[in-house]
Amino acid sequence: MLLRIDSFFYYQFKEIIECRHHRWYKIKHGGEILSLSIWVLRMLSGVISYKISNGHNDDDDVDQNQYWRMDPFCYYRYVSNPRFFFHALMFILMITLLGIVGKITFFFCSTDSPTFSSPYEYLIINLEQYRQCRRPQHEIATIKRQIFKKNWNKLGENRFIPNIVRKMLTLLLTKYRMIIDKVTIELDPYKWSKLKRVDVKQTIMPDDRLKVIKFLSFVDPIICFVHICLIPPALFIIIDYNVKIITAVDEHHYNIMYRLLFAIDSIILVHNIIVVIQCALFFVILSSGCTLLNYSLILRINRLLQNLAQYCRSMKNNHMKRKYRLLPLPQRQQLARIYREHGEICNDYMNSYRELWSKALLFYLVLSVPFDAIGLSAYWLENLIWIDLATVNLILSIHALITFFSLLDLAKQTKAMHQTGDYFPIILYSIDLLPFNDYSSLSLKLKMDDLYDRLKYGKNMVREYRYLDPLHINLY
């Protein structure tokens, strides 16, 4: 996957859906889980043996046989900074456990349910259709020249700008415009209009699809930048690990075999770090993409309901002057579609949370408590070297940002879903004035009342409709 970091999420998600039954897929991810599990056992054994020996009496013969002295990485961490030894092992233990939980949750779960099939359709299939509808390179170059010419003429209105500065500013503005409007510039409107809709239950508009494509186009350079930033720390860890271990062992052990084993162990360590980081990136991108689409769909429904509520409010004020129904047929049909759309979005939201995100978030939050406690307790240690302090700050900052933005997305989406109920009182009043002369009017009343009760009071096993009593009276 390191060879495809330019489209990391695309290839990772396609691999989960399309290749999960292949043998190489099971060997690859099973081997990564096994490697992470071995590191969990190593760190756990190192912590337990260190606590038993209390880390004292370095010249004691009993302590020389402790596991934390025999394990190369544990001994490397002890040689680097004995005061930070326990916290470093616990940090690695918690991060590795999070990586194992993430691998099992995302790469070995059932992908036949809509929890994975729906995001796959509007994230991956949508992106593939966009790539099929891109303009040829000569058309993109023509548009770029037009943008350059427009910026050049605009800057030419100011006569005090030298030509060299004018050309540099024009190039910068053109590059900025090409980056900001990349999706709309590269997209061929004619080909895009001829595409079939995405095969999901929700009604996804072209604007919603473009939002998802812009999000994925924005994410790919960030992922590349993150992987490039990992190169210097990875090289530093490999070199520092081998140098400190080789200089710490006796001359009797200073041979090529030990050097080779230490090099392999350091490479496995770096590989495990990359696996955990990639799993966290996949978690963040998938949750952000799903939240972005659902939030966009809910906002569109809220805008439609807000317009309907304003229409019903204006008709209510003029009801005594007018002699026709408050809610015409087109608005009633629109309400029926909104009811269906809102139900599909809520079902997708609840099913995905129950089958996927609830387990991942539960383990994440459970492990976050000891993780934060260990990180904060590290600030009370004395004589911490700068690299250890920077590592603690970086890990806690990333963990805090992931937690904050995950809960913020969850809160925004939940608020948008329940905000729909704020527009229903006036709409329900308008529906209540409709006569029970046909089945569609009664069905619409029951649907809207059901949706309002569901948003205000939650999902009940037995629903009570306040329209059943008037219906009972009219029947008699």
Structure annotation, total helices: 18
Distance between the termini: 70 Å
Number of strands: 0
Strand content: under 5%
Main β-sheet: number of strands, strand sense, barrel status? none
Nearest-integer average pLDDT: 76
Q: How many individual domains?
A: 2
Oligomeric assembly: single chain
Indicate the low-confidence ranges by residue numbers: 57-62, 460-476
- What's the alpha carbon Rg, rounded to whole Å? 30 Å
Shape: globular
Please write the string of helix (H) and strand (E) elements.
HHHHHHHHHHHHHHHHHH
Give the class from helix and strand content and strand pairing.
mainly alpha
- Please estimate the helix content: over 70%
Essential attributes:
globular, membrane, mainly alpha, 2 domains, disordered C terminus, 476 residues, 18 helices
Question: What this model shows, in words?
Answer:
The structure is a single chain. By secondary structure, the chain is mainly α. The chain folds into two domains: 2-134 and 187-423, no CATH class; 435-475, no CATH class. It contains 18 helices and no strands. The protein has helices at residues 8-18, 23-53, 67-70, 72-80, 85-107, 114-132, 137-155, 163-180, 182-186, 189-193, 206-229, 231-248, 256-317, 329-377, 386-419, 424-432, 439-457, 468-475. The protein is globular, with a radius of gyration of 30 Å. Mean pLDDT is 76; it is low at 57-62 and 460-476.
